[in-house]
UniProtKB/TrEMBL annotation:
Residues 15-299 form the NADP-dependent oxidoreductase domain. Pfam families: Aldo_ket_red (PF00248). Signal peptide: none annotated. It comes from the Bacteria. CDD domains: AKR_BsYcsN_EcYdhF-like. InterPro entries: AKR, AKR_Detox_Biosynth, NAD(P)_OxRdtase_dom_sf, NADP_OxRdtase_dom. GO terms for molecular function: oxidoreductase activity. Gene3D superfamilies: NADP-dependent oxidoreductase domain (3.20.20.100). GO terms for cellular component: cytosol. This is Aldo/keto reductase. SUPFAM superfamilies: NAD(P)-linked oxidoreductase. PANTHER family: NADH-SPECIFIC METHYLGLYOXAL REDUCTASE-RELATED, OXIDOREDUCTASE YDHF.
Length: 325
């Protein structure tokens, strides 16, 4: 798989990222099982075999067990860590007692969360740390202090954000000496507001579109790598049962299957190729732990290169369920 640089920062990452949210079994405090580790190992093997070098974590995934699983695998395979680009996230806290689930960009939380992630992952450093979801109480100078400590101690190389608007990124960036490297957003054929926001400018019909205005353009202008979470739409177009799904989803799933058959490829390669055909150079974060499904993503980059404008619009319009304005 062709590698692309994450901007000017010198990290050479694969175009596809393996999302590690499913690793580690359920979202509970049950101990990790050998079966969980074996399943993750098979998934990583499959990902490596198709050239995936970047792995996406968060401190909260399966309540820490996703990172723990990955850490066990790294420990058993010395030398593997240096072949990988490991990204994790912090900033979401679970509810405890009377305190609800919340977001936390305090210096204390960021530093503690990274130490915990490093311990679970069995690594000395993260390549990339993302702030998971915008915290309304964020103080950019405080975040900058935390990032500064993590950078100078060698615990984190690069920093980024997730689910943030252009204004929020600008606000944070003012306090930081280094440019933010990544913004991870939900984007797929079933989550289209990142495109609809742009095509509806000056159209009353676009009033209900919920996406930060100008974010796609801002990230591209500022060289911020856009990563897409949820890129497989949880299997909606690639074989999952569609019972109860709206007509546009059902029709698009049939279209994806038809295109895949015509092009002698997989439905996964079509839906990912559609995302990757966008000029922003999106990196899809595929969240499957199923080794066969990971292998089915292999042809995505080639399909992106082959996809014509007409094919791209045919998929977009079908998934919108409405003609262009
Ligand atoms: N930044 C954020 O706020 C955020 C939020 C959510 C996720 N993420 C990241 O993004 C990654 C991907 O997100 P995602 O999991 O929401 O998206 P996804 O890649 O669209 O979907 C993956 C899920 O769909 C299932 N699936 C895929 N194809 C299927 C099929 N044909 N039939 C049945 N099930 C199918 C997978 O199950 P199998 O494992 O069985 O294949 C898995 O549970 C996560 O792992 C995580 O790293 C980030």
């Amino acid at each position: 798989m062709k590698r692309i640089p994450i901007q000017q920062r010198g990290i050479e990452a694969s175009r596809l990222i393996l999302g590690c949210m499913p690793f580690g079994g359920g979202w509970n405090r049950d101990p990790l099982t050998e079966e969980d580790v074996l399943k993750a190992e098979k998934a990583i093997e499959a990902a490596l075999s198709i050239g995936i070098s970047m792995y996406d974590h968060a401190n909260i995934y399966t309540m820490g067990k996703a990172e723990e699983t990955f850490g066990r695998i790294l420990k058993a395979r010395p030398g593997l860590r240096e072949q990988l680009i490991i990204q994790s996230k912090c900033g979401i806290r679970f509810g405890e007692g009377d305190v609800p689930g919340r977001f936390d960009f305090s210096k204390e939380h960021i530093l503690e969360a990274v130490n915990d992630s490093l311990r679970r992952l069995n690594v000395d450093y993260l390549d990339v740390l993302l702030l998971h979801r915008p915290d309304p109480l964020m103080e950019p100078d405080e975040v900058a202090e935390a990032f500064g400590k993590l950078k100078s101690s060698g615990k984190v190389k690069y920093f980024g954000v997730s689910n943030m608007s252009a204004a929020q990124i600008r606000f944070l960036q003012r306090a930081l000496p280094d440019q933010l490297a990544v913004n991870q957003l939900e984007m797929s054929l079933s989550r289209l507001d990142w495109l609809d926001q742009g095509v509806h400018v000056n159209q009353p019909v676009g009033a209900s579109v919920n996406f930060s205005e100008g974010l796609m353009e801002y990230c591209q202008m500022e060289n911020i790598q856009i990563q897409a979470w949820g890129p497989l739409s949880q299997g909606k177009f690639t074989g999952r049962s569609l019972e109860g799904e709206p007509e546009n989803i059902q029709q698009t799933a049939a279209l994806v299957q038809r295109m895949a058959a015509e092009k002698e490829t997989t439905p996964e390669a079509i839906v990912l190729g559609w995302l990757m055909r966008h000029p922003a150079g999106i990196q899809p974060v595929i969240g499957t732990a199923n080794a066969e499904r990971i292998l089915a993503c292999q042809d995505a980059e080639r399909q992106a290169q082959l996809m014509t404008r007409d094919e791209w619009y045919t998929l977009y319009v079908s998934a919108r369920g409405n003609n262009m304005p």
